[in-house]
Please model this.
Amino acid sequence: HKTMQRTQTLEAAAREQIGAAPKPGAPRATTQEEEEMADLQGNLSQVGISSLLVLLEMERKTGVLTITREGDESVTAKVYIRKGHTIAAEIVGLEEPRNELAVYFILEWSSGRFSFEAGAVERNVEIDTSTTALLMEGARRIDESGISRY
Model:
């Protein structure tokens, strides 16, 4: 019951942030081409990865979520989504972590940018669990590791 309330709260927050007009001075995509290609984009400091995945699941979206962590070393991840289900995930340029482990890895990110491009995903299903189960396991791992995202 508590998980469902948290999911609904995350979904409402994500919808509010995504639907909100950009704040004056808020960072924008670097090029007009990026703005035209991305169906949904934003800053991880405003909308967290778990909220994004819940929203995409609830809306049954299909496409690729690209997330770039900013900092000393920029890292990019791609999460492949079909009809709301997370079917595969990877860290660009790395063999590991992949799929579930890649999702758990990126759930720790709190700064960076994301973009979602809707469209057919030509990818085999490599993650055979629900988004909710992925997020719950990711939260458990973060709690056990003692990592503070805030």
Q: What stands out?
A: The two ends are 25 Å apart (CA to CA).
